[in-house]
């Protein structure tokens, strides 16, 4: 399997982070809206499309905050992700219009709902990639950090 590009939206309003909620055998977990880049599509186009599909929102795409590499065989989900190698580009986005935030026209597989997580409580949630939780909190405090986070989960 080749390397797959993915574009993700970091949407923060009123000290909360917009996420999609899913569930597995360990309980609820959360992901940023976004997904795979399609052939011929720019990363900005991909994140805009994915936000409409997953959270029913039009977004403005801003700065690239993080680049995360995910090599599945190196992490706790290796039993089902061993062949996955993905590069995720996480952009700061803002909602410019919505038809009511919630599951969009093409929700992510297994997506239960859309949920705002309080930034001050982010460490209490199983948000993937988990290492990014600290980086997001630091970002809101003006702490500088490298954009490339490495192979993390």
Automatic annotation (TrEMBL):
SUPFAM superfamilies: Nudix (SSF55811). GO terms for molecular function: hydrolase activity. Pfam families: NUDIX (PF00293). Transmembrane segments: none annotated. InterPro entries: NUDIX_hydrolase-like_dom_sf (IPR015797), NUDIX_hydrolase_dom (IPR000086). Its cofactor is Mg(2+). Residues 2-140 form the Nudix hydrolase domain. Keywords: Hydrolase. The keyword Hydrolase applies. CDD domains: NUDIX_ADPRase. It comes from the Bacteria. PANTHER family: GDP-MANNOSE MANNOSYL HYDROLASE, MUTT_NUDIX FAMILY PROTEIN. This is NUDIX domain-containing protein. It comes from Ornithinibacillus hominis.
């Amino acid at each position: 399997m080749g390397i797959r590009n993915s574009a993700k939206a970091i949407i923060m309003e009123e000290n909360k982070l917009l996420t999609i909620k899913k569930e597995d055998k360990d309980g609820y977990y959360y992901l940023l809206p976004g997904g795979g880049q399609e052939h011929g599509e720019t990363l900005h186009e991909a994140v805009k499309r994915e936000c409409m599909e997953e959270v029913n929102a039009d977004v403005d795409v801003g700065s690239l905050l993080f680049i995360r590499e995910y090599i599945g065989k190196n992490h706790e989900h290796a039993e089902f992700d061993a062949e996955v190698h993905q590069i995720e580009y996480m952009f700061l986005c803002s909602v410019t219009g919505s038809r009511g935030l919630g599951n969009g026209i093409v929700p992510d597989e297994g997506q239960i709902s859309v949920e705002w997580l309080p930034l001050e409580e982010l460490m209490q949630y199983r948000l993937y990639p988990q290492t990014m939780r600290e980086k997001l909190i630091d970002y809101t405090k003006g702490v500088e950090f490298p954009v490339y986070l490495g192979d993390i989960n």
